[in-house]
Amino acid sequence: MTVSQARQGNSTSSVLGRRLGAELIRLRNAAGLTQPQAAKVLSASTAKVAKLEGGWVPVRDPDIRALCELYGVRDPGIVGGLLELARVDRERRKAKGWWDDYPIRGVLQEYVALENASTAIKVWQPAFIPGLLQTPQYVLALRKSPITTPAMREQSDEDFVTARITRQQRLSCDAPLLLHTVIYEAVLRNMPGGAETARGQLNHLTAAAGLPNVSIRVFPFGAGTHFGLNGSFNILSFAEPGAMDIVYVEAPFAQRWVEGGEGAAAYDELFTMVAEQSLDERESVSFLHKLRKEL
Fold this sequence. Notes:
Helix content is 50%, strand content 14%. The protein is an alpha/beta fold. The protein has two domains: 4-94, 434 Repressor (Amino-terminal Domain); 101-294, 2-Layer Sandwich (Endonuclease, Chain A), CATH 3.30.870. It has a six-stranded mixed β-sheet, with helices on both faces. A two-stranded antiparallel sheet has the order 1-2.
């Protein structure tokens, strides 16, 4: 779903709300039931059920439990996943985060907020060092490169760098984010900012690879080509990885969310394929050391 599709007048649906709503629709359809039947068990209007399923309003735990009972869903894992997604969505709607202090706008603001709330992220990146692993020097070099967009230029250098680096606190907090990333070799050989920036960035990647919650793998030129080279994508998990995943897909001048189960599953399969064709973690660290010595 694009940003414009997430708006109705002055209202905005949340990404997590839409993901939860899509799952509730799937369960209702699987049970052969209608929105009016769901509304009856909630003692609510059909319009309210439509809003719940569209992600326009937060969903209360009692409503989720009542709907699961109506739809014949007894699996604790499924019910628990829905409850967790609803909880994170409710907290996300009312929370004020560090990102509100910076001029981060549009879909990127929503992404940063979701990144902060997620428990695990899988990243495939064929063009840049993933944002959670960038050094300040690399960020500043990107800022000064021709690829900078008008929105990026609205920020001062200090705000631009600080906002990007602040995101990385999720890798070292009390409940650290699990980060699994695959980086295309071209990214490591074509860094902005020259040799000094490249050395610092490669050193940082090597250090990050030593964290227990971070996995870095390199997709080498010798592994051939694949569909993922069309663009980068991030798979965000908020409970157990799987059915509740949301995918953020980025391309020049366009970003979109993949909120459906089958769509997210397709990206997860693509990530698995890319990772399997990549160097393993030990080989990837050795490769980073090799590139560092060549500078």
